[in-house]
Amino acid sequence: MVRERVKEFASIMKLSLNQSENERPFKIIILDEADEMTSDAQTSLRRIIEDSSKTTRFIFICNYLSHIIEPIQSRCVVFRFSKVPANEVVEYLKFICKNEGVKFEEKALYKIYEHTNGDLRHSINILQAASTNGNINTLQVQNAIGISGKSKVSEIIKLALDSKFNESRIKLLELLYVYGVSETDFLKYANEEIYNRDIKNISEISSMIAEYDYRLSIGAHPEIQLAAFLAQLGKINDNKK
């Protein structure tokens, strides 16, 4: 993709028959979820950025800046966006409900914010899932949060710690491919779940999570790595018994 489509598009000079003073002579390529790109792809992209500087500008959108290689970071201006405050998230959810003719309880909207912690896109997704019958209350929000996948991580971690590898792996694949939870989000939720449990060897497991997070960031196969993570969880717990 990078070496063919992106390179070809970036190298073509933009032509305009009626170019005004405010029109810029370059195109824009926006790469969303850029932190999911492998290091090799990013390295190829770095050279394209240099070679096409007269014709193209690049915008990288990512959740984790640490997953973007340093040579690309050094060629960019970095803009960091903070989490959206609670009142702004709730007001926007109200705006959606009113436009869609959906009745709502205000405390239910705040419940959505508590779960998403300022992630507006995630909040809207939960709002949509909770509004199936045209009315939103706290119970429906709670059910929608359960469907969203995060709550299922607790079950997967419990199965893995109990050395039930096959069961935990099946639940993991369901979470990734049916509920659409990303690999990095799974590790983030798993990390939260581990700290919420009374586990004696927490430092060892924490180091292990960091290792698998690094492997994913450098382009290792997600399904293989997360399956290995679950297997190792069971092995660590067996050794401590």
Helix/strand layout:
Layout: H1 2-11, E1 27-31, H2 39-51, E2 56-60, H3 70-73, H4 86-100, E3 103-104, H5 106-116, H6 120-130, E4 135-136, H7 138-147, H8 150-161, H9 165-177, H10 183-196, H11 202-217, H12 222-240
Order of helices and strands: HEHEHHEHHEHHHHHH
Specify the biggest β-sheet: 2 strands, parallel
The global form is: flat
CATH first level of the largest domain: Mainly Alpha
Low-confidence stretches: none
Q: Tally the helices.
A: 12
Tell me the helix content.
55-70%
Average per-residue pLDDT, rounded, comes to 84
CATH topology of the largest domain: Zinc Finger, Delta Prime, domain 3
Please characterize this protein's 3D structure.
The chain has 3 domains: about 1-75, P-loop containing nucleotide triphosphate hydrolases (Rossmann fold), CATH 3.40.50; about 85-145, Helicase, Ruva Protein, domain 3 (Orthogonal Bundle), CATH 1.10.8; about 150-240, Zinc Finger, Delta Prime, domain 3, CATH 1.20.272.10. With about 240 residues, the protein is mainly α. It has helices at about 1-10, 40-50, 70-75, 85-100, 105-115, 120-130, 140-145, 150-160, 165-175, 185-195, 200-215, 220-240, and strands at about 25-30, 55-60, 105, 135. Helix 4 (about 85-100) crosses helix 5, helix 5 (about 105-115) runs parallel beside helix 7 (about 140-145) and helix 6 (about 120-130) packs across helix 7 (about 140-145). Helix content is about 60%, strand content about 5%. It is flat, with a radius of gyration of 22 Å. A two-stranded parallel sheet has the order 1-2. Strands 3-4 form a two-stranded parallel ribbon.
